[in-house]
Design goal:
The chain is of the alpha/beta class. 42% of the residues lie in helices and 15% in strands. It is globular.
Length: 680
């Protein structure tokens, strides 16, 4: 095997010109044909290069060379080593000639990263020619269909947004990141970036194997060279990364109830980026943004992270941040996965574009970041800072309770309001980015302007509208004053979120078999149809089983699939302004939560727990199912041999014992009226 420097040059040349003749390759490398052939035999035997026949009359050019995924990964590693050595040589020469070190400590808060913010950063893509060959070869590999979160992750891995990561984390890197925010080589990185897969898929792959990674449409995006396979301690991951093993946290819930049980790690060979059909002109890779900043001569850039629409307070905040840092402004909203229930990114981007002309065009730009947020508070803030540094930014605005998910199971905020700022401040020199503190801006009526809350004297009138109050005003069609938001933003929000009485919604009944769910649901459907105004669809458990899930059994896995299908259909009905009434047993908390998140993206979700006792359900049992279950003739029967996890946060609880159906249905109607979903 050639030494590292020779190997780097050889792999680089073969990747750049895979169809060149051996003579041309030898000349480019400055070696003899004999030595080149020896090197080619060595790298082929090591599995780094694949040699193929090339048709043509010239026998001197009968071979074509292509890097394997493992070869591409080795080339990426050697590129980093080469650049690091050259950088060290530059620093040493600079010190020798000037007597002043050029490294991170030569000036306060001056880092090598800041000095080279305009230089391209490493990407994980192979050349176009190599990608075309690898795409064909990868068609025969075992493949994994990426989840939406994994697709976001792999895009930022491949385009350098997650630099210095070269793929999904190995077990050693993962353990270091979970325990102390450090990878095995000591690099600062706060967030595990792992490929979680199902147990069944994991059984069919082993370290040393290459697998193709496909998007949801089956397009091969990359090849993973598996180096590690392990079962993580998810409780420990939740405790260390998110601060508590509490499923009230959306990412902890995802970790335990959505993510696969086995992690795969290894280097990534990028073939093609995911395709986005929306706002394509606004989506920039790190290197595209760096080139843009270089072209305009921007030396200082402050990034503003947001997952919410921009209102007047945000505008004032960003103006002040740019002025304080004497920097240009990058509005850099997340359009990947955010917190369940957030305004969809299509609406948000329309809001951003509507107010972009309120900013000076010469010093402000906007770009979209396809990031899957984890809502991890302090760690997330450090992560966001590293990502913005990779995009060429020098300053980063860190908000109050930055990326906080809200309250835990005890009703207390997961993170302190300034925990994120403290952690970023602790690491900003190492990150290579300066933090700009978020100022809580409020409107002073007497001066008709926004000012930082901590700079306002007593006796003035302070006006503010919370996020909860804004949602209430939108839901009820109430006025939103011009001092709070821009008319263009309010118009877009009202288009997406009309008053609740015009929105679609889902009523989701859950309870034991025989509890009365279907009976109340039928009565509800009739009453709502009697009122008119919106189409009403009943998704009863037995009816759905017959028409939508006839091939499914009653195992936990199949019951989950059935409920998720109901949730998907209900979300489509809700999205299109209709009313969906669902009446399955839905015994598992995690599945009900997944359905809630699916539907609340488009409208209201009202969970109704029909809390009839097991004894009463057995007494009513006309089909004799409970009797058969107790005799063991029906396996996995909810309430007998399989648990029913009672809801703890249902919008309404009804008990049908000693109560007629009409009264129960009326209770649900009253709840809908109180929520503004139907008119009195």
């Amino acid at each position: 095997m050639p030494e590292d420097d020779q190997l780097f040059l050889l792999l680089r040349q073969l990747d750049a010109a895979p169809d060149a003749s051996q003579r041309a390759t030898a000349q480019a490398l400055g070696v003899s044909l004999g030595r080149l052939n020896a090197q080619l035999r060595a790298v082929t035997a090591a599995g780094l290069v694949r040699i193929g026949d090339r048709p043509g009359p010239d026998k001197r050019q009968r071979y074509a060379y292509a890097l394997t995924p493992r070869g591409a990964a080795v080339k990426s590693r050697l590129t980093d080593q080469f650049l690091a050595r050259k950088r060290a040589e530059y620093h040493a020469l600079h010190a020798e000639l000037t007597g002043v070190a050029s490294g991170p400590n030569s000036l306060p808060k001056r880092t090598t990263t800041m000095q080279t913010q305009h230089a391209p950063i490493p990407e994980l893509y192979v050349s176009y020619d190599s990608a075309q060959k690898l795409k064909l070869e990868a068609g025969d590999l075992t493949s994994w269909d990426l989840t939406p979160r994994q697709t976001c992750d792999i895009e930022l891995l491949m385009n350098g947004g997650f630099n210095p990561l070269k793929g999904f984390m190995t077990e050693e890197d993962y353990n270091g990141v979970v325990e102390n925010m450090r990878m095995a080589d000591g690099s600062l990185w706060p967030m595990p970036i792992t490929l979680d897969v199902s147990e069944e898929f994991a059984k069919g792959v082993e370290p040393g194997q290459d697998i193709a990674l496909r998007d949801q449409e089956g397009v091969i995006l990359a090849i993973l060279s598996i180096s590690d396979k392990w079962v993580p301690n998810k409780a420990r991951e939740a405790e260390m990364v998110f601060g508590a093993d509490d499923i009230a946290h959306p990412s902890v819930n995802y970790l335990h109830n959505v993510a696969g049980p086995v992690y795969l790690g290894g280097a990534i060979t990028g073939i093609t980026p995911p395709t986005h059909y929306d706002f394509r002109a606004r989506r920039d890779t790190p290197n595209e943004l760096r080139a843009y900043f270089r072209k305009l001569g921007w030396r200082k850039i402050v990034a503003f992270q947001t997952r919410n629409p921009l209102h007047r307070a945000h505008q004032e905040l960003t103006f002040r941040a740019a002025k304080e840092a004497q920097a240009n402004l990058l509005i850099h909203p997340v359009v990947g996965m955010t917190k369940p229930g957030d305004v969809d990114h299509f609406t948000r981007v329309r809001c951003y574009e509507a107010v972009l002309d309120k900013y000076p065009a010469a010093t402000t730009t906007m770009s979209l970041l396809n990031l899957a947020m984890r809502m991890a508070g302090p760690r997330e803030a450090v992560w966001h800072a590293l990502i913005r540094k990779n995009h060429g930014c020098t300053h980063f605005i860190v908000g109050r309770d930055h990326a906080g998910p809200g309250k835990n199971s005890q009703g207390v905020d997961f993170y302190g309001p300034y925990d994120a700022q403290d952690l970023v401040r602790e690491h900003e020199a190492e990150i290579g980015i300066e933090m700009v503190d978020f100022k809580h801006m409020v409107y002073v009526q007497e001066r008709a302007q926004y000012e930082p809350a901590d700079e306002i004297e007593e006796g003035v009138t302070v006006l503010n509208i919370s996020g909860t109050e804004l949602r209430r005003r939108l839901a009820e069609g109430l006025e939103i004053p011009d001092w709070f938001s821009f008319p263009e933003v309010v118009k877009e929000l009202r288009r997406t979120r009309p008053p609740r009485s015009n929105q679609g919604f889902t009523v989701f009944f859950t309870g034991l078999s025989g509890s009365g769910k279907s009976t109340i649901a039928n009565a509800m459907m009739v009453k709502l149809m009697e009122q008119g105004g919106r189409p009403v669809t009943l998704l009863d458990g037995d009816v759905v089983r017959k028409h939508l899930s006839s091939e499914l059994g009653f195992s936990k896995e199949h019951r989950d699939i059935n409920i998720r299908r109901i949730g998907y259909v209900a979300s489509e009905i809700t999205k299109n302004g209709g009313i969906a009434i669902c009446a399955p047993i839905a015994p598992y908390t995690a599945t009900r939560r997944a359905v809630r998140e699916m539907i609340e993206e488009f409208g209201a979700f009202i969970e109704v727990h029909v809390a009839t006792s097991l004894e009463e359900c057995e007494r009513r049992d006309r089909k004799g199912l409970y009797k058969l279950a107790r005799e063991g003739k029906i396996k996995e029967f909810t309430g007998i041999s399989d648990p029913y996890e009672e809801p703890t946060n249902a919008e309404l609880v009804v008990d049908t014992e000693g109560t007629d159906v009409d009264y129960c249905a009326q209770q649900v109607l009253l709840k809908l009226e109180s929520m503004g979903l139907i008119t009195a």
